[in-house]
Amino acid sequence: MEKVYFTKNINSEALIKIYKALNRDLKGKVAVKISTGEPGGHNYLNPQLIKGLVSELKGTIVECCTAYRGKRFNVDDHYQAIKDHGFLDIAPCDIMDEEGEIEIPVLTGQHLKGINIVGSHIKNYDSMLMLSHFKGHAMGGFGGALKNMSIGVASKNGKAWIHSVGITKDPDEMWHHTDDQDGFLESMAEACEAVINYFGKENMVYINVMNNLSIDCDCDSNPHDPEMKDIGIFASLDPVALDQACYDAIINSDDSGKTSLVKRMEEKHAIHTVEEAERLGLGSRAYEIVNID
User: Among 181, 180, 243, which residue's Cα sits nearest to residue 208?
Assistant: First the structure.
């Protein structure tokens, strides 16, 4: 059974404490992958919440441009959003596809035709903290570690490749190829495999913060207000166990506000990404919770 650490406390000190509980030191130049949030939205991780941990790791906050034509589609606009949201005030920030993209191999799976397309600056990092805000998502059902690692690390063309299930790399064209929901979820799992193999399992750590639990993603410029109460912070060395634990925390919650989020996850068959990631050997859905309060 994989260990998933949990604290109900959501503050800077708790974030550092749960990272240290994992007992894995990220070495070399550390990338901290977050969602910097679409302008207009307000549920993304607070810079002051993550500042202490990012500083502890001497990390660089990394992102890639979006595949939809919002205010993070172009590099200059995206950097403005990063600045406006306060992330440049706490750490160096890097849009990994600002100077192009590279292909990294997908060794198994059936959709991505052997390639995942990621920001070229991935080459500048030795390890990665996948620091995710767990919440709903209009297309994936929920967004956690696996979505952050797949769609989040992909360049805008790579995002189109995943969303279209390996049909097109054109962000505008991809919207004509979004009917295969399970194929999309499986493509995300394939992209995760490529990122894990690129860095090596020993050079990755995963933390999900379960606050501001909207049914909408941080990529939404006008997200629905959260209906659930905050739950806490979960962390693991296994992204499959981590996302499964967070999904279960919502499904099993006694919070009556969970109804809309549960419906969103079930309608989009969200758990299938986790199922496919386990099938591909990226981790285990069997876990035990270790409380660190």
Answer: 243
- HSE toward the beta carbon, residue 279, CA cutoff 13 A: 15
Structural domain including 173 reads: 2-291
On the 0-12 / 13-18 / 19+ scale of CB atoms within 10 A, 106 is buried
- Strands 287-291, 2-7: parallel, antiparallel or unpaired by DSSP? parallel
The answer to whether the predicted template modeling score (pTM) of the entire model surpasses 0.90 is yes
Question: Within a 13 Å sphere around the CA of 99, how many CA atoms are in the beta-carbon half?
Answer: 6
On whether the CB atoms of residues 277 and 2 are closer than 8 A, the answer is no
Mean pLDDT of the residues in the chain: 97
CATH code where residue 172 lies: 3.40.50
Kindly give the parts of the chain with pLDDT less than 70.
Answer: none
**Tokens standing for residue 251:** 């499904």
**3-class DSSP assignment, residue 232:** strand
Residue with tokens 């030795």: 126
CA angle 40, 179, 257 (to 5 degrees): 50
Q: What is the pLDDT of residue 88?
A: 98
Phi then psi for residue 39, to 5 deg, are -55, 135
Q: How many domains does the chain have?
A: 1
How many other CB atoms are there within 10 angstroms of residue 25's CB atom? 11
